[in-house]
Amino acid sequence: MSQHIFARHSSYLIVSWLLVGLVSGCAGDRAGGGEGLRGAVHIDGSSTVYPITEAVVEEFQAAQRGVRVAVGVSGTGGGFEKFCAGEAEVADASRAIKPSELERCRSHGVDPVGYQIALDGLSVVVNPANEFVSCLTVDELRRIWEPGSRVKTWRDVRPEWPEQRIDLYGPGVDSGTFDYFTESIVGEEDASRPDYAASEDDNVLVSGVAGDRFGLGYFGHGYYVENSEALKLVAIDAGDGCVLPSAETIVRGDYRPLTRPLYVFVDRPQLARAEVVAFLRYYVENASRLASAVGYVARPDSAYEELLNTIG
């Protein structure tokens, strides 16, 4: 089963949307900024956004070999800490920047500009050997994950389900996915039972559920898509029936309440650097193809064209 595990590693100002796509044969012509660029771009943050950024970086560096782009994965909160401290010019984020983070950034002379790059349908998964769970209601998810939860076994969720312990896997507290899930499902950001296997690395969560017959976890949809043979997707019922996340249900807004935007934040003064501008333009120009390729949902081409006009 290990061959199926997605093994990608690395460590309120919203402008518009962003992402990736381009055939490698013409990559050099569309990298932006021309040949001969030199410099470095440091990125850190969300493990959810990481697969998109990783794909962009691989193609961009093939076209602009003089620019070194380093990507870390500290979670959205951890990424904003480094970004606000001036340790990264770009922050990947699976949620909008918080007022407290914005204030911290500005106190350090960092002026965040946010680019909404794609949509994600945050996905709830179980092990493929789990034959009884195909759909969970929002209320059932809340009862499982809320602080002080009395749910210990699957029978505690529904009486017809087996009396087998639920092993829970979820993002750590520095994750934007954790923030979004707790607010959307529990009703309060950061409100969660503590007795679960937590990691800022979604690959660890994938491996956990894939190896645990009675496991339950949640993470960005891209990680499910890359590991669909090792995981079973669970539909969510928000009151209008069971809905699975897909490009169609996410775009239509049918997959509620776990459809969310994904972001890249840049320190505005860094837009004076040719290598940063070239990287951002490449990101935008190539958005739709690479977003879809790694399991996320891109915006219409017109949205990216509009965004290009804001970069310079």
Give an overview of the whole structure.
Helix 2 packs parallel to helix 3 (99-107) and helix 9 packs antiparallel against helix 11. The chain is elongated and about 65 Å long. 33% of the residues lie in helices and 21% in strands. It has helices at residues 50-63, 75-84, 99-107, 138-145, 176-186, 202-210, 221-226, 247-252, 274-285, 287-293, 301-311; strands spanning 14-17, 39-45, 67-71, 90-93, 112-121, 123-126, 135-137, 167-171, 197-199, 215-219, 232-237, 242-243, 259-267. It has eleven helices and 13 strands. The strands form two sheets. Strands 6, 7, 8, 9, 10, 11 and 12 form a seven-stranded mixed sheet that branches. The protein is α/β, with parallel strands linked by helices and 312 residues long. The chain folds into two domains: 2-119 and 261-311, D-Maltodextrin-Binding Protein, domain 2; 121-259, Periplasmic binding protein-like II (D-Maltodextrin-Binding Protein, domain 2, 3-Layer(aba) Sandwich).
Keywords:
11 helices; 13 strands; alpha/beta; seven-stranded mixed β-sheet; six-stranded mixed β-sheet; 312 residues; D-Maltodextrin-Binding Protein, domain 2; disordered N terminus
First CA to last CA: what distance?
46 Å
Run of helices and strands: EEHEHEHEEEHEHEHEHEEHEHHH
**CATH homology superfamily name of the largest domain:** Periplasmic binding protein-like II
Radius of gyration: 20 Å
Q: What's the CATH C level of the largest domain?
A: Alpha Beta
Instruction: Indicate the overall shape.
Output: elongated
Query: What's the number of domains?
Result: 2
CATH architecture call of the largest domain: 3-Layer(aba) Sandwich
Mean pLDDT: 88
Q: Mind summarizing the main beta sheet? A: 7 strands, mixed
Tell me the number of strands: 13
Structure annotation, total helices: 11
Which structural category do the helix and sheet elements fall into?
alpha/beta
In the predicted model, the low-confidence regions spanning at least 5 consecutive residues are 1-30
Strand content: 15-25%
Helix content: 25-40%
CATH domain topology of the largest domain: D-Maltodextrin-Binding Protein, domain 2
